[in-house]
Design goal:
With about 90 residues, the protein is mainly α. It contains four helices and no strands.
């Protein structure tokens, strides 16, 4: 494996791994009222653009890196939206 690929793997692991504590915290708290959607949403849009660029350049390695980030951010956003909608349903009961 070449050093740029190893460096990309390391960078992807560190960046995406930094989201794991937030995912775990949301899972434990079971609510996300104070959580901002703007940052992860903008980040997701940026990663989608990066995936498009990497795909257009036929760069499978970087497409994979962006895809991992997309899955992590989509999971985080889905978790936040789920807990917010679930909490609203409970408040209306």
């Amino acid at each position: 494996m070449s050093w740029p690929i190893v460096l990309g793997l390391l960078a992807t692991g560190l960046v995406e791994g930094s989201y794991l504590p937030q995912l775990w915290r949301l899972h434990q708290l079971k609510h996300a009222d104070e959580f901002s959607l703007l940052f992860p949403l903008l980040n997701l849009i940026g990663r989608l653009a990066g995936l498009l660029a990497a795909t257009l350049q036929h760069n499978a390695v970087f497409s994979g890196f962006f895809l991992v980030g997309i899955v992590v951010r989509a999971t985080l956003l889905a978790q936040v939206l789920y807990y917010r909608s679930h909490r609203r349903k409970l408040q209306h009961v």
